[in-house]
Design brief:
- This protein has a single domain (about 5-135), classed as Jelly Rolls (Sandwich), CATH 2.60.120.
- It is built from 3 helices and 7 strands, in the order αββαββββαβ.
- It has helices at about 5-10, 35-40, 120-125, and strands at about 20-25, 25-35, 55-65, 75-80, 85-95, 110-120, 135.
- The protein has a 7-stranded mixed beta sheet.
- A hairpin with a 5-residue loop joins strand 4 (about 75-80) and strand 5.
């Protein structure tokens, strides 16, 4: 399996806004967020995320994409991934906030192309480390 997620390779692995992500031996069903509206709302107002579910944000450019937890109802791990599909940074169990005034943005130390949101505790339980490869696999329906 090819492990880089750039260009048409990446596009071929996304079907109907969904992808499969492999981290170590665990496979996640990912909802792909690649439009302005879906990126703005993300997991807002949802009640939970399953242990094998995720949301993958796809950006056109590398940057220090900040994420805040406004209107979230649960904690999540946030994983920033470079265009070469290596983990560049992560935050464990980012906490929700209710007010714009109390919300702090979670910003990676290095630029990324993708951001993956998973259930709180996933980074620790899977032993995810910076530099680790994240695989995007074809999503079969």
């Amino acid at each position: 399996m090819i492990r880089v997620g750039i260009g048409s390779f990446f596009a071929r692995r996304i079907r109907h806004g969904r992808a499969r992500i492999r981290i170590n031996r665990r496979i996640f069903d990912a909802e792909v967020s690649d439009s302005g509206i879906s990126k703005t709302f993300g997991l807002m107002f949802r009640n939970r995320i399953g242990s094998r579910k995720s949301m993958l944000f796809v950006f056109k450019n590398d940057a220090k994409h900040g994420f805040w937890m406004l209107n979230m109802r649960f904690c999540i791990d946030i994983i920033w991934i470079g265009k070469d599909m290596h983990v560049v940074d992560f935050v464990r169990c980012a906490k929700p906030c209710k007010s714009v005034l109390s919300c702090k943005a979670n910003i990676p130390k290095r630029p990324s192309r993708y951001v993956l949101e998973v259930a709180c505790g996933t980074v620790e339980s899977l032993g995810i480390t910076k530099g680790q490869i994240i695989e995007v696999m074809p999503h079969h329906q």
